[in-house]
């Protein structure tokens, strides 16, 4: 069965062009002109991916994401003309998995959809075998995280993290595929940070990569999402 994409958007021209490209790539498409209709279709159709605008009548995109996350884990990609970092941060905070700014190239949207589906399918295929019976230890590839003892291992060897590095690693590792902004990650460590602001996150990310990546210059786990932040890939 083909994957279903739900488009929640009030601009009929955008719906038309996205539907054209998606159907041409063998996706099934469902559309809703506002957040309320989108929620109804979400529960009826159980889409694999959701594309949502932010500025819509009756229920805006932020409220839609908040409600959608109560009933669905499907990846949500925001497509919006709003390009302020605060809008991106709020959308990601509420549970979106990506953010594309209008005007956009439909090819970019297709690439984004394929990428999030690959990550979701890979996690679904390997997830259950990577969790210990009591749920305290999670393994992704060569990396293992004991959530109770807060011990991280790579290839069975203990990885030594600072307190700030561990907080950042734990947040990313616990939600694979989800993008976190530098601001979100800095909020985790701001109370114990010795300055540097959000720019210090880049230093911590570099340190984490040096400890868990086979090639820190070409990271396979802690991945940069240009213009947004970072995500963990298993």
From TrEMBL:
Matching entries from Gene3D superfamilies are given as: 3.40.50.2300, 6.10.250.690, Winged helix-like DNA-binding domain superfamily/Winged helix DNA-binding domain
Annotated GO MF terms: phosphorelay response regulator activity; transcription cis-regulatory region binding
Segments forming domain OmpR/PhoB-type: 135-234
Name of the protein in its database record: Response regulator
Q: Where in this chain does the record put each Response regulatory domain?
A: 4-117
Q: Which residues bind DNA?
A: 135-234
Coiled-coil stretches noted in the UniProt entry, renumbered to this chain: none
> Which GO annotations describe the biological process of this protein?
regulation of DNA-templated transcription
4-aspartylphosphate, modified sites? 53
Q: Which GO terms describe its cellular component?
A: cytosol; protein-DNA complex
List the keywords (alphabetical): DNA-binding, Phosphoprotein, Transcription, Transcription regulation, Two-component regulatory system
Q: Which InterPro entries match?
A: CheY-like_superfamily (IPR011006), OmpR/PhoB-type_DNA-bd (IPR001867), Sig_transdc_resp-reg_C-effctor (IPR016032), Sig_transdc_resp-reg_receiver (IPR001789), WalR-like (IPR039420), WH-like_DNA-bd_sf (IPR036388)
């Amino acid at each position: 069965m083909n994957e279903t994409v739900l488009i929640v958007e009030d601009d009929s021209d955008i719906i038309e062009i996205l539907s054209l490209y998606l159907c041409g790539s063998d996706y099934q498409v469902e559309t809703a002109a506002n957040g309320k209709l989108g929620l109804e279709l979400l529960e009826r159709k159980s889409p694999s991916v959701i594309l949502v605008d932010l500025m819509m009548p009756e229920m805006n995109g932020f409220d839609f994401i908040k409600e959608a996350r109560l009933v669905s884990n499907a990846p949500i990609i925001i497509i919006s003309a709003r390009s302020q970092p605060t809008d991106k941060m709020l959308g990601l905070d509420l549970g979106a998995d990506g953010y594309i700014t209008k005007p956009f190239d439909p090819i970019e949207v297709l690439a984004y959809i394929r990428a999030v589906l690959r990550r979701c399918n890979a996690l679904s295929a390997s997830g259950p075998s990577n969790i210990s019976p009591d749920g305290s230890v999670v393994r992704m590839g060569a990396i293992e995280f004991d959530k109770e003892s807060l011990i991280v291992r790579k290839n069975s060897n203990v990885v030594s993290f600072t307190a700030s590095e561990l907080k950042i690693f734990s947040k990313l590792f616990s939600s694979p595929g989800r993008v976190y902004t530098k601001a979100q990650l800095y909020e985790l460590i701001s109370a114990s940070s010795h300055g540097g602001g959000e720019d210090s996150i880049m230093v911590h990310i570099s340190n984490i990569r040096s400890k868990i990546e086979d090639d820190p210059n070409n990271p396979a786990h802690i991945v940069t999402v240009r213009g947004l932040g970072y995500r963990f890939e298993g």
